[in-house]
């Protein structure tokens, strides 16, 4: 991805989810990035060890016509996903006044769903 596109992503890491569904950039090609079945993100053969980088990329992940892409307002690059980009590492139920809450731990974040 270009330096311009990466600079534009700074606010993505500190705000709510970006409006990826509204972005319609041109396809720029393939990126040597693989999300492994075990949840590891591999770029150019090396594991990405920085959780903030994985978090940033995960927030601009887009699924379209059976393929995965990273998108910015100006670029769209295809990546490879071995199984699924969402890898649950822990889960539990919590009873609340509103109902059952399902906690899903995904490296490096937790998601909660009221069921």
Strand/helix succession = HEEEHEEEEEE
CATH-level-4 superfamily name of the largest domain = duf1285 like domain
Question: Which CATH class of the largest domain?
Answer: Alpha Beta
Question: Tell me about the biggest sheet?
Answer: 6 strands, mixed
Helical percent range? 10-25%
Name the CATH architecture of the largest domain: Roll
Number of domain modules:
2
* CATH fold type of the largest domain: duf1285 like fold
Q: Strand order within the widest sheet?
A: 3-2-1-6-5-4
Number of helices: 2
Structural class: mainly beta
Give start-end ranges of low-pLDDT stretches: 4-15
Taken from the alpha-carbon principal axes, the silhouette is globular
Gyration radius over CA: 16 Å
Annotation, overall tally of beta strands: 9
- The average pLDDT score comes to 79
**Intertermini distance:** 38 Å
Strand content: over 45%
Summarize the helices and strands and which ones pair or pack.
Layout: H1 3-7, E1 27-35, E2 41-43, E3 46-47, H2 51-59, E4 61-64, E5 67-71, E6 76-81, E7 88-96, E8 99-106, E9 109-114
Parallel strand pairs: 1-6
Antiparallel strand pairs: 1-2, 2-3, 4-5, 5-6, 7-8, 8-9
What key phrases describe this protein's structure?
mainly beta, 2 helices, globular, 115 residues, duf1285 like fold, 12% helix, three-stranded antiparallel β-sheet, six-stranded mixed β-sheet, 2 domains, 9 strands
Task: Explain what this protein looks like in three dimensions.
The chain has helices at 3-7, 51-59, and strands spanning 27-35, 41-43, 46-47, 61-64, 67-71, 76-81, 88-96, 99-106, 109-114. Strands 3-2-1-6-5-4 form a six-stranded mixed β-sheet. It is mainly β. It folds into two domains: 3-84, duf1285 like fold, CATH 3.10.540.10; 85-115, no CATH class. A hairpin with a 2-residue loop joins strand 2 and strand 3.
């Amino acid at each position: 991805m270009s330096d311009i596109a990466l600079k534009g992503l700074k606010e993505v890491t500190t705000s709510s989810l970006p409006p990826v569904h509204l972005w319609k950039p041109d396809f720029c090609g393939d990126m040597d990035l693989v999300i492994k079945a075990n949840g590891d993100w591999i770029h150019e053969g090396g594991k990405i060890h920085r959780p903030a980088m994985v978090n940033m990329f995960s927030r601009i992940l887009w699924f379209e016509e059976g393929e995965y892409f990273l998108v910015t307002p100006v670029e769209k690059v295809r990546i490879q996903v071995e199984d699924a980009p969402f890898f649950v590492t822990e889960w539990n139920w919590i009873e609340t006044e509103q109902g059952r809450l399902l906690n899903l731990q995904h490296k490096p974040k937790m998601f909660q769903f009221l069921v």
